[in-house]
Amino acid sequence: MYLLNNLKFNERIARTLGDVQYPKGWFLNAIHRDAVGVVEVPDPVLPDPELYTYVENADGSLTVTERTAEDIAERQANALANFQAGIVYQTQERLDTFARTRGYDNILSACTYATGGVPKFAAEGQYAVAARDNTWAALYTLLADVQAGTTPMPAGFADIEPLLPVLAWPN
């Protein structure tokens, strides 16, 4: 970070200092910065955004405010809700992709054949219903365990997918 007269200085933009106009990028050269008194200082250490908010001041320093316990709890709840929504979406995609391997539009389409009159499609539809039900039951049990704190928070769907029922059409 650069400062000129104790104010943050962007070396990449065009600017006028006194009566002199400098083109964009002029101050990328250290000799030009030195000539007008621009000094380089370390960037401020940014606080943990989960625990603090901050505003950058004109001199490059930060005004830091600690988050309230309520704010932290709300942010964690929102993060968990967003994480769960993503996991639910990926689980639905997994089921729909599986159904497409037999030519169905999605898992819902496959399930509608469960009571059909063609034995092959009826068997596939019944399997799709069971696969869908078992998958969602397993996922929501896992998510409830995570929320209860009895199971650690997975990093992503890759950690969850092996815990879901195997999707394989019966022969």
Q: How are strands sequenced across the largest beta sheet?
A: 2-1-5
Tell me the number of strands.
7
Report how far apart the termini are: 66 Å
Helical amount: 40-55%
Taking pLDDT < 50 over at least 5 consecutive residues as the criterion, the unreliable ranges are: none
Order of helices and strands: EEEEHEEEHHHH
| Cα shape | elongated
Number of helices: 5
Structural class: alpha+beta
Over the alpha carbons, how many angstroms does the gyration radius reach? 29 Å
Largest sheet: 3 strands, antiparallel
Mean pLDDT figure: 94
Q: Beta fraction of the residues?
A: 5-15%
Walk me through this protein's architecture.
- The termini are far apart.
- The protein has five helices and seven strands.
- Strand 1 (2-4) and strand 2 (7-9) form a beta hairpin.
- The chain has helices at 30-36, 69-100, 107-111, 119-148, 157-160; strands spanning 2-4, 7-9, 15-17, 20-22, 39-40, 52-56, 62-66.
- By secondary structure, the protein is an alpha+beta fold.
- The mean pLDDT is 94.
- The strands form three sheets. Strands 2-1-5 form a three-stranded antiparallel β-sheet, covered by helices on one side.
- Helix 2 (69-100) packs antiparallel against helix 4.
